From TrEMBL:
The lineage of its organism: Eukaryota, Metazoa, Spiralia, Lophotrochozoa, Mollusca. Pfam families: GRDP-like. InterPro entries: GRDP-like (IPR009836). This is Uncharacterized protein.
Amino acid sequence: MAGIIEHIKSKIKGEITSPKAIRFSLDLVNLSIDHIHLLEEINKRTVLLEGPLVYRAIQRYEQLWLPLVAENHQQILAAPIDIEWIWHCHLLAPVMYHRDCENAVGQSINHQLLDGRKKLKALEISKSLWNKKYPDEPFDIPLNGEGVSPDFMYESHALSYDLVAAVSRQKHFYYQVSLPHFKDTKYLENSLMRYKKYLYLKKVNPEAFLVPCYDIDLIWHTHQLHPFIYRDETTKLLGKIFQHDDSVNERHPGSRLSKADAFTRTKWKSQYNENFANFGAMYRGDLPLNKLAMVSPGDTYGFSTKSAWIDIHKVKVDGLNGNIDKTKVKIYFACNLTKGPKLTTIRGLQREWNDHEKNHIKFEFDTKQFNQLKVSISQHDGTCISCFGQYDDIASTFYDFLPVLEGTGTRGLKFSEELTVNTNTHGALKVHLHGFIQPPTMGKCLLFLQNGRYDQCNMPLNSERLWGPIPLPKPANNMDENKCSVASHVLSNQMERLISKYLFQVIKSNGKIDIEISILGHLITRED
């Protein structure tokens, strides 16, 4: 009864008594998608993730941008991308951000995420103000390192927050939230509810160090990128600005992060009677920076299927006995020595057929369906003068046409092929095909998995290559924990050629986690 009375009193006072009662003035779902788009743009420019351009961006942020925004605080401004990245990292330390702004320019500086059209307009206004105030300093600087010494460094004078270290930590965040489901509004609506639960859990455990899953963290970061609103809303809920600490990253057993994770899971389960871990929201491993590369257009074209129009100008059969009356040649599509649809039939007394003799043969060859041509030769038995005589098969052969088409360039290719066919009645026959392949167009990429055999082994911890190109937390140095079933599987394309860059291993450990290691990516969680 006492608990019910206290609950009623809290309701009367307007206190938050459940996560559902928490309200935000921002559309954090759609803003989180805008946030991911921003991180996407930054991560395309890897020079902003480490090196001298980071120091240059910090210098521009402190010495040029903050004073400019302070002078024009009533306008909505947008920063060039190098400064925006530093600003973003600074905002994720909300307490120090407000303190640093006061120290640097005498006032706190607001920020907001903008969508495409609003951002373009804000950038135009910002650039105009910038050019008036700083005529000798470009608004947008080259992001190829031009004009910045490799040894350039900058030490901040007014900012107490270590922005170089913050960039080094935050450059890993986008990888954790870069999968498509983080742009799904239904998924993000659930993430928003989980963020409210996270805040409420902090409210009822004010002294606890709680850690979020990445779905919660994305919403939390997005909230912090609106510093005035974040300050007001978290202060109203928790009595002070909710500090965000991204410096705790050690994940080994017994670490502060590991203990906080276990504590958060326990408290979450107790408070909400549900698991804290969420599908698609767990740690994926470290950022594979400089470990993976995009497949080039040339490589993609090389191992994709292709289709092209083929003109056969001439068919000739050598080696037939002179007493043969009429000859018939049939050409079929084929795949792996299996006959497909018929393309054409040519017949007559002659042994050679040319396209100018009304025997023009034109067809489209698609390597997604076929890899060969089949040529069949038959002869008229000569027993009947009428046109209803019988044709007897003499021989047939397959022409591996796939490699010929694969070797065709953008200008097309003339081909001339001699096929040898051994027969019992005519000895060795020669079939000549002459024609032209039009420039191919790229089709689907067909990949086929060749399963390897699983073997038991101990995985050495000091060989990064064996653990795959994407960094993974290594297990403890214990022989029992490193015992694995290992198999090497191979992907090949429709030509049955090994695509070596897609050779990968699957490692199944005997511990709690199954690990798939692949150049294509990881499917790794520590989910409940």
